[in-house]
Write a structure and sequence with these properties.
The complex is a heterodimer of chains A (about 260) and B (about 325). With about 260 residues, chain A is α/β, with parallel strands linked by helices. Chain A is about 25% helix and about 30% strand. In chain A, helix 3 crosses helix 4. Classes of the chains: A alpha/beta (about 260), B alpha/beta (about 325).
Chain lengths: ~260, ~325
């Protein structure tokens, strides 16, 4: 079976983000593979390791630099990569799904067996890629997946929902949006990293999508940093007195409690 | 008159406060019909409330054979038929776990713009604001086609009375139910408190709690405040709390009225997940902890003494809840 894993090239979660006007920001910070996508990839690799004759293809969209994230995915164990070229960090999510969906469809050899994504990216947090891919490829989708099992064509997943978990059944092919509790992603060794350099990355150059196929859904106009609030008022007293004083202030001063 | 659909969510048979907030946001947007949308046959009991918060039409979406629409694929399809029938300019909901899933399905099916976790919406211009990088930046987005599918972050729009007279409608839908995705079972989690992402008060613990056992002192305090309990990534990675409780850039983003961080040093990633809280309180024994540099109130002391003292004070003072 052929398993696609969508991975996104995102700024490190520890990075400070400095907007530079419009949708631009200082991109000299360190970039990493989107953390949720590592869990998606780990699940795909576990399936490939069990099912003979299967292949894991990592797909990303972005500029040339996004190939770095594909190399990380290849080092973790993906068999090959596809880089779908775009010309900005933020691309309309609908357009992105169209381009990735076309790349997957354009691979030939019939529909994919499974498509994994992270449940969301940690940069744009659009929370829509798995749904859009599923709709474009006419597949069922489950997101916020924290447990996955497969028996023949039947896929059973557990989803994190409000106040608990939901057990959902689907048939292959389907789209899965991975959450963090799904598994613990493997760490590549140095030989894995070396091996990854030799693996194939196919680059799909950006072609204009005809207006009949595509009109954008949204556009990022501006980004502003959100300042931290300043130093708080620090209380230092006996625990009992601090507790009493805090509650008084939360009621009378901040007016968040009654 | 243009119309806006508002997906109403219920919990334990009651309309969620966050849904009333979305309803008032739609009602405050000017001369528009505001449709409150409910699944099944429960609209009657909620009519007075939905009118009070600005609904001008209350629509019950139902299947003719009264079979419940349980699967998300069917619910999304029914919502899309509703959007078409009433020609909504926008469909609004709460960015709750269920709301996000359903709104994303609706938007994906019709290739409509989708923005989840909105911090601000302008229904006249189609300009919305949302956080990027888990709250490190706020982005302003322009929506380019209709209808707009928008999930609002809970508590960003508080519920405000907007009394109106509403017409009550039934909207029967008919199509073969989907069997591609079947919900087999729902397993309730251990937490009986409010959902983390929707709670009005959150009390979180860091690695300083030392063990899963240590979280008990937070739970006792939370129970008296009607709060949800959260955890830092360090506490989750150490195995003291499940990932479902993690607040931060790779966990949940929360925006409560009151956030109490206990034994949390205050990393950039943790703040990314909670910095839009209205009031932030930090409890820490380290006077140099970064968290004291970006909170509203800091309590310098041992959390194992301060939190139980807070619990005692709450017991003594009687019922305490978040201010409306």
């Amino acid at each position: 079976m052929r398993i696609y894993v969508c991975v996104k090239h995102v700024p490190d979660t520890a990075a400070n983000i400095r907007p530079l006007g419009g949708p631009a920001f200082d991109e000299t910070v360190k970039f990493i593979i989107n953390p949720y996508d590592e869990h998606a990839l780990e699940q795909a690799l576990q399936i490939r390791d069990k099912v003979a004759g299967s292949e894991v293809v990592a797909v990303t969209a972005g500029r040339e630099t996004a190939a770095g994230t594909l190399r990380s995915a290849l080092a973790m164990g993906a068999d090959r990569g596809i880089l779908v070229k775009t010309d900005a960090h933020f691309t309309d999510p609908l357009e992105l799904a169209q381009r990735i969906g076309r790349a997957i469809r354009g691979e030939g050899d019939g529909p994919p067996s499974l498509i994994f994504t992270g449940k969301q990216s940690v940069d744009e947090e659009g929370m829509q890629m798995p749904y859009r891919l599923a709709a474009l490829l006419d597949l069922p989708v489950a997101v916020d997946v924290v447990a996955f099992s497969m028996e023949g064509e039947k896929v059973t997943v557990e989803r994190e929902i409000e106040g608990g978990r939901e057990v959902v059944e689907m048939s292959l092919p389907c789209v899965i949006g991975a959450a963090k509790a799904l598994n613990r992603p493997r760490c590549p060794t140095l030989p894995d990293v070396m091996k990854a350099r030799k693996k194939e990355i196919r680059v799909i150059e950006k072609v204009e999508l005809p207006a009949s196929v595509f009109t954008p859904s949204l556009e990022v106009l501006e980004m502003e940093p959100v300042p931290d609030r300043g130093r708080g008022e620090i209380l230092q007293d006996s625990p009992e007195k601090m507790a009493r004083e805090l509650l008084r202030r939360l009621k009378e001063e901040a007016k968040v409690l009654k | 008159m243009p119309g806006i659909g508002v997906l109403i969510e219920e919990k334990d048979g009651k309309v969620k406060k966050a849904s009333l907030g979305v309803l008032s946001a739609a009602a405050g947007a000017g001369e528009r019909e505001v449709y409150a949308l409910l699944f099944g046959g429960r609209a009657e009991g909620h009519c007075a409330l939905l009118q009070r918060y600005g609904a001008t039409r209350i629509v019950t979406i139902r299947t003719p054979d009264s079979k419940p629409l349980s699967g998300p694929e069917d619910q999304a399809r029914a919502l899309n038929l509703t959007i078409d029938a009433f020609r909504f300019e926008a469909l609004l909901g709460v960015a709750s776990p269920a709301g996000k899933d359903l709104l994303a399905r609706v938007a994906a099916a019709r290739e409509a713009p989708l923005v989840l976790d909105c911090l601000g919406i302008d229904l006249s211009s189609g300009i919305v604001r949302k956080s990027h990088f888990s709250g490190k930046t706020t982005a302003t987005l322009a929506l380019k086609r209709r209808p707009w599918i928008l999930g609002l972050r809970p508590h960003v729009y508080p519920e405000r009375p907007f009394p109106r007279e509403a017409e009550i409608l039934d909207f029967p839908v008919s199509f073969p139910l989907s069997n591609r995705l079947v919900i087999r079972e729902i397993r309730p989690g251990e937490s009986a408190g409010p959902d983390l992402s929707e709670a009005e008060i959150v009390i979180s613990g860091g690695r300083a709690l030392g063990s899963a056992e240590g979280f008990k002192i937070l739970k006792q305090c939370a129970a008296l405040l009607g709060a949800a309990v959260g955890a830092s990534r360090a506490a989750v990675d150490a195995g003291f709390a499940p990932h479902a409780m993690q607040v931060g850039q790779t966990g949940k983003t929360v925006s409560p009225k009151l956030y109490i961080a206990c034994g949390i040093s205050g990393s950039v990633q943790h703040f990314a997940g909670m910095k839009t809280s209205k009031v932030i309180v930090a409890v820490n024994c380290d006077p140099d902890a970064p968290v004291f540099g970006k909170c509203d109130y800091g309590l310098l002391g041992d959390l194992f003494e301060v939190v139980p003292a807070l619990t005692q004070e709450l017991v003594r003072g009687g019922s305490t809840r978040a201010m409306d």
